[in-house]
Amino acid sequence: MSLATEKRRTVRRTSGTGPPRAATGPGAWFLVLPALIPILVLSVGPLLYGILLAFTDAQSGRTAPTRWTGALNFSDLLHDTLFWESFRIGLLWAVGVTVPQFLLALGLALLLNQDLRLRRTARALAIVPWAMPEIVVGVMWRLVYDPDAGILNETLRDLGLGDGRDWLSGLATALPAVIVVGVWAGMPQTTVALLAGLQNTPRELHEAAAVDGAGAWRRFRTVTWPALRPVALAITALNLIWNFNSFALVYVLTNGGPGGRTRLPMLFAYEEAFRYGQFGYAAAMGCVMVAVISVLLALFLVGRIRGGDDT
Amino acid sequence: MRTRPAARAGQYAALLAYLVFLAFPFLWLVSVAFKPARELGSLHPTWIPKDPTLAGFRQAFDEQPLLHAAFNSLVAAVSAAVIAVVLATPMAYVVARRRTRLARAVSAWVVVSQAFPFVLVIIPLFLVLKNLRLIDSVPGLVLVYVVWALPFALWMLVGYVRALPVELEEAAAIDGAGRLRTLVSVTAPLLAPGIVATGLFAFVTAWNEFFFALVLLKSPEKQTLPVVLTHFIGSEGVADLGPLAAAATLATLPSLVVFALVQRRITGGLLAGAVKG
User: Fold this and answer.
1) What is the Cα–Cα distance from B131 to A77, expressed in whole angstroms?
2) What is the nearest CA distance from A307 to chain B, expressed in angstroms?
3) From A208, which residue of chain B is nearest by alpha-carbon distance?
4) Are residues A5 and B274, on separate chains, in Cβ contact within 8 Å?
5) What's the pTM value of the predicted model, to 2 decimals?
6) Distance CA A131, CA B258 (A)
């Protein structure tokens, strides 16, 4: 998950110990093929095929042959205001989930890295959302948000904070409500990644800084954060991609409603492909999603790396 | 390092707040699952059912083919996990032990495979599987799950192999053991726990998977548990809360049990191996 670290480590160890006999020689190819062939045939192949489909008028269940239409899908997409609206919502959702998720997970990871009682229990509990099927997470939060039988409104009523409302159906509340669920559901991965990063920072540095009289915030800024940065960067980048591409949670929470306020790009493309059968058009959407997310991520990573140089 | 008592108290308060945030939706789910219909209709829901009942569970089984769906899920998840691990282990070994372009390509592929939206892959896969007459069949779904599980299975296993000291294998070689012998009697036993953890992780991911199952499985008797769960929610978005909660609770149990059993190894394999220098 911390891919940056992994890459660095690979490079570093290249010059280290030589390869053992067991993996050398022509036998290695024989060991690689069982995984390589399915990946190429059923993953790389379909991906390329999918990109090709974006340039055709492919539809499901049509008898007429599929024709090459060049960039037609893309020029149509350019004028599809509904798609761009869903794209905007996707970006809002991705950032809206990733940022609080990171901050909360960082807090939790720092806590779990302390010598607290119940630490082990807390660690085990903290990854529960990870083990749950996304669909169940969605179902569960529907029960929490339920206008009548939900615990959220009941708690608000008990606290005298109004009569409660129908969170998932309100035009203004739907997106924030699903964002809260997204944050909840993705916290474990982020926490575990950051915790692993924290355990990688040398304790002695901390202690030395403490002896020198550095306060908690200063220790965090000068010792913890520099060591954590590569992991934090990698998990944030991955979270942005995962969240932008997410589907199941929102599908079961709101199915894109009310009035498209939570219609993430994946929901849009799914409907286009499997409800309206527009395979070519939906594939073009997929291509645009990949392209834009790659550019954004590249900008993000470059910006973060530059921005980090002065620390 | 000593921490002041006030700071310590603050830490415990924060930890408690986190745990409440993490646990309350789950506790609520279980509570609703055991509530009788009468209490669910009440405008003032209580945390703990006054009159706990299994009626929600019974109704859930009556309304949807839950057992059959669980069986489909089990078949899909077990097959996918076993096949993925069997295919990935040899490759992971080579990638971990050799610094070649292939190893770099595999690392790059793990990253790339995380980045593209599923819709871009599922449309062509749908067409391919349709030609192979594997749409609406559990084997077709297994095929997709295997390929989908391979990148992270490779990722975890590479970490586990790297954690094994090369010296052990070299020592075996010096002692005169052949390549195969070294792999079978030295490497494999040491790697076994990692292989099991990887397989269990693949199992959980496949058991929980929704999008591919939704697209590929049409007939109710072929569908997996996550897809069947959505049938409890009507087309108007209206749900029968009791059975919905009961079925959702049941669908979670296997993954929770597996995760609890191998939690340390999974998180260790996914992260510690990758982070430690």
Assistant:
1) 29
2) 23
3) B1
4) yes
5) 0.87
6) 9
pLDDT tens per residue, range A33-64: 888 888 888 888 888 999 999 999 888 877 77
Q: Cis peptide before A176, with omega less than 30 degrees from 0?
A: no
Asked if residue B261 lies in contact with residue A137, where contact means CB atoms within 8 angstroms, the answer is no
A273 vs B contacts (CB less than 8 Å): 119, 122-123
Residues B53-83: tens digit of each pLDDT: 898 899 889 888 899 999 999 999 999 999 9
Within 10 angstroms of residue A18's Cβ, the number of other Cβ atoms is 11
Check: CB of residue B96 under 8 Å from CB of residue B158.
yes
Compare CB distances from A241 to B114, B148, B182 and report the shortest one's residue.
B114
CA quadruple B91, B94, B95, B101: dihedral, nearest 10: -110
User: Is B121's Cβ below 8 Å from some Cβ in A?
Assistant: yes
* Burial bucket for residue A279 (CB in 10 Å: 0-12, 13-18, 19+): buried
ipTM of the assembly? 0.89
Q: Which residues of chain B lie closer than 8 angstroms to A38, CB-CB?
A: 87, 146-147, 150
What tokens were used for A225? 């954060």
- Residues 27-86 (A) with a CB less than 8 A from some CB of B: 27-28, 30-32, 34-36, 38-39, 42-47, 49-51, 53, 58, 60
**A201 burial class (0-12, 13-18, 19+ CB within 10 angstroms)?**
middle
